[in-house]
Design brief:
Adenine-n6-DNA-methyltransferase TaqI, Chain A, domain 2, 2 domains, 29% helix
Length: 540
């Protein structure tokens, strides 16, 4: 349980009457509510407030059900379905509107998007309202000509709630307990005008921020997308809340005041521990990958043969495909990397032999071999820049589809269906193709494996920012290559191998093809993949 979950649990206990004991000598909440109604009647007679036509009384009937009576009309209805939990004897359920004088929002004129200076006036942004914290510096500068209305000014002791914005920022409540000089409410922030002598504002904040009551507020929101919802002032006022005796409100406040700082310390410690665990897991994973690609994670087995034999099999497959016209003859012009009598690594091609000792990043087992990526792949090529379409038929795999935690077709856009005819068949993604992000900052070098089972559509292609790597899959395990390219050996120097400016790095196809790869026998590749999955699953 993290700090937020613990805090939510304690707030829930508090508003259910389970955090502090009840005192039978406390004046019941029913008496307190009656006093509030009497005070409102006095203010109405003095014409300081208007009568609320929706004012109501909530009570428990002889059938043990909850009923609500509208005072203006006498209408009574059962509200059992609205009541989220049981409360102790001496407590009462009530609408927020019945214990406050009202609510009001502000204005949002065109403002300069910077925090105000001391002599200037500002309008609150919704980010000024955090759960149990008011951030006065979260504001925008009001125009100099703007006429300030006193009713919109933020005051010390105000209870504020966000009424519009993203889902995670709507319905958040705080109390203004610090500097609020020369600030006004925005149209997305609402002040709850509570009755100081009858309702503890801190308790009210805790109630409205509790998960159960917050859900009631959010159930009344409207909006088409999670990025922008809103809740009306009427809906806020209609929120059903549990109301304890006045003295118990204070006992709850005192108890929460003692507990919440401890929860914050716990949350900070938990966050540090989580970050440490993540760091340790990352270090272990990198270490496991590095051990794997160096042939140190598992033992070598003589019966599994050698990489030299594997490469001979790949060469035979190439010759067969060339004869069938499925592969260009140039694919046979690969190189052979070997260790010379001088104990150095050499690369032999049709241009002769060249020492590549400086390129070799580490030693490998004797039955392994270093190869160029191009020599073990039938296809390495960038995708195309597509013409996009709203028609969801042929998805286009882009950078955002390729995450280190897996491949996501849900993040793909779609190609214009008619343009698919311009693609050669080899450009259609095949099962277990490697997709390597080859441009951009932050995403460069990120790789994923394309699994056809994760694509519900007929086929898929890649865009121009993704390099498709298709190994000879009867001889090379795609997952093994993935782990190699995910290793620190490759990722730590990815930008050094890229071209372009600091703002736009790019892995050229020529560079990708020339990557050195340590290759074990096929069966050992499979065992390495299984071992990595086994080790990393333990850490997840």
């Amino acid at each position: 349980m993290n700090g937020k979950q613990l805090k939510n649990s304690i707030l829930q206990w508090a508003i259910q009457g389970k955090l502090v004991p009840q005192d039978p000598n406390d004046e019941p909440a029913s008496v307190l509510l009656d006093k509030i109604r009497q005070e409102k009647e006095r203010l109405i007679k003095e014409k300081k407030i208007k009568r609320d036509k929706n004012a109501s009384i909530i009570y428990r009937g002889e059938d043990n059900s909850y009923y609500e009576k509208i005072l203006a009309t006498g209408e009574v209805k059962c509200i059992d379905e609205e009541v989220p939990f049981e409360i102790p004897q001496g407590w009462e359920w009530c609408r927020l509107r019945n214990i406050i004088l009202g609510t009001n929002a502000g204005k949002s004129p065109n403002c300069e998007k910077r925090p105000k200076k001391s002599e200037e006036w500002g309008v609150l942004t919704t980010t000024s309202i955090q759960e149990n914290a008011f951030l006065s510096n979260e504001n925008k500068v009001l125009p100099k000509h703007y006429v300030i209305t006193p009713e919109h000014c933020v005051r010390y002791g105000d209870i504020l709630i966000t009424r519009a914005g993203p889902v995670n920022r709507t319905g958040i409540v705080c109390m203004v307990e610090n500097n609020c000089d020369k600030l006004i409410l925005s149209d997305k922030t609402v002040r709850i005008d509570y009755m100081h002598d009858y309702c503890n504002p801190k308790f009210l904040v805790f109630v409205l921020n509790s998960s159960a009551i917050h859900e009631l507020v959010m159930s009344a929101t409207v909006g088409m997308a999670a990025s922008q919802v809103n809740v009306s002032q009427v809906s806020i006022q209609n929120t059903l809340i549990p109301f304890p005796p006045s003295k118990e409100q204070q006992r709850i406040i005192d108890k929460l005041g003692a507990l919440l700082p401890q929860i914050e310390k716990y949350d900070n410690a938990q966050n540090k521990l989580d970050e440490l665990n993540k760091t340790v897991k990352d270090i272990i994973k990198k270490s496991v990958l590095q051990e794997a690609i160096q042939g140190k994670l598992i033992s070598q087995l003589e019966e599994e043969g050698t990489a030299k034999e594997l490469l001979e099999q790949i060469e035979a497959e190439k010759q067969k495909l060339v004869k069938e016209g499925k592969l260009k003859k140039s694919a046979l012009n690969g190189s052979v990397i070997f260790r010379g009598d001088d104990n150095k690594y050499w690369e032999k091609s049709e241009d002769g032999a060249v020492c590549i000792d400086e390129e070799i990043p580490f030693e490998i087992p004797s039955n392994w071999a270093w190869v160029r990526l191009d020599d073990i792949c039938s296809f390495i090529h960038r995708g195309k820049s597509p013409k996009y379409s709203p028609i969801k038929k042929y998805p286009v795999v882009a950078q955002k589809c390729n995450q280190w935690d897996g491949f996501s077709i849900e993040k793909a856009k779609f190609i214009e269906p008619q343009s698919i005819s311009s693609y050669n068949e080899e450009y259609f993604l095949q099962d277990r193709d490697l997709m390597w992000n080859s441009t951009g900052l932050g995403t460069l070098g990120r790789m994923a494996i394309y699994y056809m089972i994760l694509n519900p559509y007929e086929l898929a292609v890649a865009d121009s920012h993704v390099t498709v790597i298709r190994p000879y899959k009867t001889h090379i395990v795609s997952e093994y290559l993935y782990y190699y390219f995910a290793s620190n050996t490759v990722q730590s120097v990815i930008e050094d191998k890229s071209d372009g400016s600091t703002k736009q790095k790019e892995l050229a196809t020529k560079t990708v093809k020339a990557y050195l790869v340590p290759i074990p026998p096929f069966a050992e590749q499979q065992r390495i993949v299984q071992k990595i999955k086994s080790v990393t699953s333990i850490m997840s």
